Amino acid sequence: MAASTASSLPSIAFLGAGSMGGAVLQGIVASGIPHEGIIATNRTAAKADALTAEGVTSIALEERPDGNLDAAASARIILIGVKPAMVPDLLREIAPALRDDAIVVSLAAGVTLDTFAAALGEGVRTIRSMPNTPATVGRAVTGLAAGAHATAEDMALVRALFETVGSVIEVPESQIDALSTVSGSGPAYVFLLIEKLTDAAKGMGFSEADARLMAEQTFIGATALLAASGEDPAELRRRVTSPKGTTERAVAVLQDARLDEVFTEATAAALARAKELAAGA
């Protein structure tokens, strides 16, 4: 994980702290980095109360319908975490209340910077982000793309925010959707592989608990070894794969299944869906 370059963060508003916004929010709180205040809005009081317990000023929109407006007006960095279809209306609602130095950051999949510019008006600083859910445990990968009016200082500030919850890659907006097919959707791919390896272990007679322990800790241990060694994953795979051994036979089966093509097709399917979302489909 990259260390954050920030010693402190300015005021932050999360407008919609659902799965992704909530993951980033939890990660920032867990990092312990000082900040000038965090405000989060959610539709229901139950969700708002859960966030308040984490030391966040939380607003339930069912109780304060103008909560998004108040939160946006109070913050330097405003993260938009509502569902993609709700983004344009929310942006038009908060546009009149934004501070002159406000930076509006998208967490919404498939919503372009052009959509943000059209709803917010000329000159507003915007940045598009694509984090992933390991932000909750400080191990996110976040892609950032600068809008037309975002300065280098704005990007550095938002980068520092996301570095509190993991690593950051700066890309042109044209690559954000492609990035999302790897790091954004990637945790689901890993969980699926663990799920299927667990099933295979259960099929060989292991209990549910032992099967899960073997599969989960093998993935956790392998990635920890990869991080600690600095080696290429292909090299580490070769070291485990003794000539004419059991692992070589198993890996041959996986390669015969053309995993390279499967992952290429999977990421292509995710990218196609991202383009559909951007087009409003």
From TrEMBL:
Domain named Pyrroline-5-carboxylate reductase dimerisation: residues: 173-277
Keyword Cytoplasm assigned: yes
Role played: Catalyzes the reduction of 1-pyrroline-5-carboxylate (PCA) to L-proline.
Coiled coil: none
Entry EC no(s): 1.5.1.2
Name listed for the protein in its UniProt record: Pyrroline-5-carboxylate reductase
Alphabetic keyword roster: Amino-acid biosynthesis, Cytoplasm, NADP, Oxidoreductase, Proline biosynthesis
InterPro entries on file: 6-PGluconate_DH-like_C_sf, NAD(P)-bd_dom_sf, P5C_Rdtase_cat_N, P5CR-like_CS, P5CR_dimer, Pyrroline-COOH_reductase
Cell location: Cytoplasm
Family annotation (PANTHER family): PYRROLINE-5-CARBOXYLATE REDUCTASE, PYRROLINE-5-CARBOXYLATE REDUCTASE 3
Chain ranges of the Pyrroline-5-carboxylate reductase catalytic N-terminal domain: 12-110
Metabolic or biological pathway: Amino-acid biosynthesis; L-proline biosynthesis; L-proline from L-glutamate 5-semialdehyde: step 1/1
Keyword Transcription regulation recorded: no
Enzyme class: oxidoreductase
Source lineage: Bacteria, Bacillati, Actinomycetota, Actinomycetes, Micrococcales
Gene of this entry: proC
Entry similarity comment: Belongs to the pyrroline-5-carboxylate reductase family.
Catalysis performed (reactions): L-proline + NAD(+) = (S)-1-pyrroline-5-carboxylate + NADH + 2 H(+); L-proline + NADP(+) = (S)-1-pyrroline-5-carboxylate + NADPH + 2 H(+)
